[in-house]
């Protein structure tokens, strides 16, 4: 048996606080696969259980606050967490739970994927969750990664474009990545906004079909790149490139949306 001093260097640890998707397309399984592909170790803490498939969400149940805190504390007290990735929270109480967890991890980057709707349109949180995310959680996040429909919900602008939503949301978060693909544009435009006025647009070809777990894949890959020490704007580019390749090679294991094929970067070239 190897002694502790002779063990190989450990991969960066990313604490994932998200829901479980039994279809394996989104949620914690997406987090784990995407982080493995970045060369990171995923430490998954379950926030919610869902009844869903690749078509849509049928029901969900948010776990008890104490259970989530216990899971997260077990990770934090044992593993050197280098980044935190948030997915489905589902309730205001869970927003407050995450804030408590982050008090144990001062200075650790937090990637917030504000999961409010499933790709099939089903709800993944009560109406007041979006407000709590915006007012309480985004100020603690290093970067938030909403798609345009989620950005509109968070900003309270049902018909707002990405720039209008960003103007309102940057009052709450330092960096904002609003992903495209939900309109009629020929190419997909993913827009990164900084509170300091920085703007950057990442463009990629639009792919046919719709995808289950693309947002989870992107946010987890981004958290992994930050855990590896990559600077934010470079990490965004790396995560977007990886995610696009997983969608290009996506599979159809069920009767609904495509599921990203989350292979390591070397296999996604």
Automatic annotation (TrEMBL):
Which Enzyme Commission number(s) are listed?
2.7.1.49
Q: In which pathway does it act?
A: Cofactor biosynthesis; thiamine diphosphate biosynthesis
Matching Pfam families, A to Z?
Phos_pyr_kin
Which InterPro entries does the entry mention? HMP/HMP-P_kinase_dom (IPR004399), PM/HMP-P_kinase-1 (IPR013749), Ribokinase-like (IPR029056)
Ribonucleoprotein: present as a keyword of the record? no
Domain called Pyridoxamine kinase/Phosphomethylpyrimidine kinase: residue spans: 21-257
Q: What's one GO-annotated cellular component?
A: cytosol
Q: Which UniProt keywords apply?
A: Kinase, Transferase
What are the protein's GO molecular function terms? Answer: hydroxymethylpyrimidine kinase activity; phosphomethylpyrimidine kinase activity
GO aspect biological process, one term:
thiamine diphosphate biosynthetic process
Question: Does the entry feature the keyword Protease, yes or no?
Answer: no
Gene3D superfamilies given in the database record = 3.40.1190.20
Query: Which PANTHER family does this one have?
Result: HYDROXYMETHYLPYRIMIDINE_PHOSPHOMETHYLPYRIMIDINE KINASE THI20-RELATED, PHOSPHOMETHYLPYRIMIDINE KINASE
Q: What is this protein called?
A: hydroxymethylpyrimidine kinase
What organism is recorded for this protein?
Pseudomonas mangiferae
